[in-house]
Design brief:
The chain is built from 11 helices and 8 strands.
Length: 264
Amino acid sequence: MKKLSIADIVSKKNREKIVMITAYDALFARLFDEFADMILIGDSLNMSFKGENDTINATVDEMIYHTKAVKNGAKNSFIVTDMPFGSTTNVKQTVKNAIRMYKEASCDAVKIEGGKNISEHIKALCDNGISVVGHIGLMPQKVRLEGGYKIKGRGENGLNALLDDAFAICEAGVFCFVLEGTLSSVAAEISKQVPVPVIGIGSGLHVDGQVLVWSDMLGLFEEFKPKFVKQYLNGATLVKQAVKSYKDEVKNSLFPSENFEYNK
């Protein structure tokens, strides 16, 4: 599969759905590379990889480390790295951290959470030659501030607020954006009105693409399952069954058998 350019991604608007999935290491990135248009090194790694309660204490160093690992495994997918909480508190800091991530991790773009409030930051990144994916709607980096994961876009005011954010980040220079945790009808209206691809997560069918966290999609994350997650594999059960079989064979001196020994 040929690696997509930004122009390729933009050209999929209203034409072909975009497939995005998260990855945090080379092993799974290599497995996903054949199928994913875009791989996101999300700060979701803080929960599914590190076992934290939210994404907030992920660091720039960690994002760089995991992006390097993903790059070693994925040779064809377009690679996007999250800018973690605290890395975008002002324009100067945003540019400094993004440049470091761009140079050290060699990602193809960075993803930044926020709408109108972050548009100046997005413009500064684009002015400095850094490609930006936006992220509006439900923003996990605000989970503590908002007291949980709140669905966005309810009512006319909710729709208008999201449209304002979407237009602001498009004007600032994003070439696509993630729309999370939004009513399906609202997501459809936003996707219809903006000129760039909208990649949904928990925002229904009528957008330009979808992204899921890989450990959710494969049924490996057992702490909770959001309503929008479809599990394509009962991964946790399968892994536990395999490890139990290994344990039983070791305990009962069945492994290694002769087939797994060096005898000559």
